[in-house]
Amino acid sequence: MKPILLKITSGPAISFSARSDSKSYKSNSWHYHPEFELIHVIKGGGTLFAGDGIHHFKSGDLVFIGSYLPHYWKFDSLYTSEVPAKSYIELTQFREDFWGKDFLTIPENQKIAALLDKSKKGLILRGAKAEAAKGLLTELIAATDTKRIVLLLELLICLSECKKAGTISSAHQSNNPFTQSERINKIYNYTLQHFKSTIYIKEVAAITNLTVNSFCRYFKSCTRKSYTQFIAELRIGHACKLLSEGQKSIKEICYESGFNNITHFNRLFKKMKHIQPNEYRKLIHT
Questions:
Q1: Residues 274, 281: Cα–Cα separation, whole Å
Q2: Is the pLDDT of residue 174 over 80?
Q3: Which residues of 91-113 are buried (b: 16+ CB within 10 A; e: fewer)?
Q4: pLDDT given at position 9
Q5: What is the mean pLDDT of the chain?
Q6: What pLDDT is attached to residue 18?
């Protein structure tokens, strides 16, 4: 069983989807779809798994998910509790060939074709062009008829000119043999619930009905990394989120991110981010 293939509804009167969503955390799972997906997180936060990468998303993020890239939006518990805080996103989803199979092959569309190819790793878009794209996305959602096509094209032109674009996944994932969507969902959910404390691999293996050795092989075949590396990335990502908020000391952030040794935390942070935690905080606030 592969990741869940979602069918994106367009409808008889429209050729692609553009909408807002105030309950985007509902019924989410490890999935993929042939449509490209551009999402502006207006209000909300959590963890996005895309391919073999992790991104801690927050309000204001603009994320471009490529065709067939497996992904999973996990909103923070603040937005999924019985009385949740309000989340709100704007998005558009479209197929590569919705405007005709040859449209992207013409010379004038080389930049857009290159953008779509890059998006298959998952893109985090920032800067002036990203801000302009957010406005175009809002216009697109409200538009009708031919204006929708024009605005989507303008939106993609704008994104293709964005100079500040970071990737989430390390490689194109369309041919990656992801299996057992229910199993990988269990692993991600369990890890997100427990990464702030000690996690034993045998406990995670147990919830997936695998032996420890089988679990380690399975996880690496799905994500191209060890489970230990995955936890480290998740913890360091959470530490970066806390550092950007600027409310806690480095020591507090160390322990709240699941580390029990400040020296180990500083060493691992430097290895993964190529900068010390206190330097990262200064950089993020300048």
A1: 13
A2: no
A3: bbbbeeebbeeeebeeeebeebb
A4: 52
A5: 87
A6: 95
| Distance, C-alpha 36 to centroid of its chain | 13
Q: How far, in Å, CA of 103 to CA of 11, rounded? A: 22
Please give the span between the terminal C-alpha atoms of the chain, in angstroms, as a whole number: 47
Give the tens place of pLDDT for each residue, 246-264: 778 999 999 999 999 999 9
- Residue 203 confidence (pLDDT) above 50: yes
189, 47 in Cβ contact below 8 A? no
Query: Tokens for 163?
Result: 């100079």
From CA 285, how far away is CA 276, in angstroms rounded? 14
pLDDT of 273 reads: 87
Which class for 197: exposed (0-12), middle (13-18), buried (19 or more C-beta within 10 A)?
Answer: exposed
Least Cα distance to 54 among 212, 238, 253 occurs for: 238
* pLDDT class of 175 with cuts at 50, 70, 90: very low
Distance between CA 186 and CA 182 in Å, rounded? 6
Cβ distance 78 to 59 under 8 Å?
Answer: no
The angle at the Cα of 66, spanning 134 to 132, to the nearest 5 degrees, equals: 15
| Joined tokens for residue 124 | 């985090």
Question: 69 versus 10: which is more confidently predicted?
Answer: 69
Residue 46's CB is within 10 A of a number of other CB atoms, namely 22
